Amino acid sequence: MSKHGGQRETQADAGLIIVLGDVARADALRLSLEASVRVTHHGHDVGAALRSDRDRAHAPAAIVVFGPIAELSTLVEHARAPILSLGAVPPAGPAGSGETDAAGLFFASAREPDHARLRQLILHALATAERATASEEQPLAAADAQRLARILAGAQRLGGLQQPWTVAAHTEALAIELSGATRAYCQFFDEHGGELWRPIDPETTTVSAVTGLVGCVARTGVGLRLARADAEPDFTPSVDDPDAPASSGARAGVSLLIEAVTSPREQVHAILSVVADAGRPPFDEADAAALGVLAEQLGAVLHRVALRERVEASLRARAEPSAPIREEAWRSHLTRGASGDLLRVGARWPGALLLVVLALSLAAAVLASVAEVSRYSTGPAVVQASARSELTALAGGTIREVLVAPGAEVHAGQIVAELHGEREATRREQLAARWEAALRRYLAEPDDLATRTELLELRAALVELEAQLRERVVRAPRAGRLVDLRVEPGQHVEAGEVIAAVVDSGPVDELVAFLPGTDAPRIGPGVELRFAVEGYPFNTVAARVVTVSDGALGAREAQRHLGPGAAELDLRGPVVVVRAELEQPNLAVDGVALPLRDGMLGRAELRTHSEPLALALLPWLRRFDRAPASQPAGHRVESLAATKTETPR
């Protein structure tokens, strides 16, 4: 837009400056600027300057006026380029206002500024003209406006978050929503240590920034958009896509979009990246623009967090001299110099301190005798879909092809994987050729008993081979979502080996927990259980116990309840298998509902009983405790079930 509010009809030449006034100053200006900037001198000819200003091909980026000229007001009124008036009184505004007519001026000064400031003013005028030309674009499309509105709303929520892991989780969810990606990563960057880390679980996701495409963006601050990231030599799965499935073909054909999250001083605070699996459209310019805007908003949030930590650290450092230890005595104590009282202790402190200690001791004794503490049973747990069907290999062999990606929807009977069967197929073609030849002979001589017998034997062999070939195809037993895919092309499997599972497409509703076997007598159906997903220790989901195994089981025997998928669980000692029903299928994190998925690991916690605080602090007091023990949770549930009629669910 022009300074008069209308659309500019000419395209400004970003490297052209028109100078009016003293020719010596024009020559000096030409020498002080870069070679890419061209300076043209028009003397005092305002008309020539205005004609150049309207030239579509050579409109100037700025007009500089040295000293007074007769028609400065006319130039200010009609020129479209920004004007710098130096060494002359600026044109006056409305009569009686006492103000300068600044509508068409970029800068005006009655005295010519020094050399360095003049150069800065002209370079900023050129940059302003370039931005004005770039901003003359069409209005946002409806879809772009809606996406930008979602980014701004999400950024507003980001500004209210305090913990790094909540900022990262919210940012990753918003990035997936905006770009339609399969996975998203928000990795903070430690410039001094050269490390990238995700605050969800820093011990397991801290990686070095010296490798990978993400490491390259962290070091350069320049984003990347790649339609085939796996084809890049620098693509490092452990750094660029650590959450991808473990199968070798899971990262084939993935597209990658990476943006650097920087501070106003271009310091890289974090790296925001999204990944789209093969089969999904690669990221386009609109996705890159949206992720760039999100990175800008996140950069402002992280800059404020860093600045706040710096201010708080400074305030803590300045508050240290007010501590009770005298600074002079402490320095003397360290250097073993002159003696002095190390603490600032007044004459009234000992008596007051004794009274405070006695009061606190009395309050602690009363609290220990009255208050009660709860005891909890905790152990590993895994989210599991209630309707789960496993896919097994009907025959042994080598996987030739996997046709369905994990998480994809399948229908009943759909082929999920195929085993190599070239030898059986060749044998079938040979038998089919022999069967056709025997059939022709039989049709020519129907009474030939030997030909008829050969025809029947060949038919039986063909039927058997067809059955063998069908066994080399693994199909989905029912419609649903494919999960827990355990094979990849080239892998050998045995007959009856589980290769994947199919669960309902709806939300999961079951939790399997492995709690210590010593707590078995205190656990029963109906007891409330809390489940925390790995990475979100302070956000839990409620569940109700449905069944409990009859007795304590060993680690290997307990893993049979989940199959090979339970290998990642840390089971120690005898455990009881507890199956519970989740009260909701989502995990609430900072107001964002994150859906629970089949196979998610975490920790389950169940309250078993309570006891006085004194007994918890001093266990040897139990020998003097005559009060009956608190009734365990499982027994309370059983007593309620005995007095009430059970309602079928």
From TrEMBL:
It is a single-pass membrane protein. Residues 118-312 form the GAF domain. It comes from Enhygromyxa salina. GO terms for cellular component: membrane. This is Biotin-requiring enzyme. Its main location: membrane. PANTHER family: MEMBRANE FUSION SUBUNIT OF EMRAB-TOLC MULTIDRUG EFFLUX PUMP (PTHR30386), TRANSPORT PROTEIN COMB (PTHR30386:SF26). It is found in: Membrane. The keyword Membrane applies. Keywords: Membrane, Transmembrane, Transmembrane helix. The keyword Transmembrane helix applies.
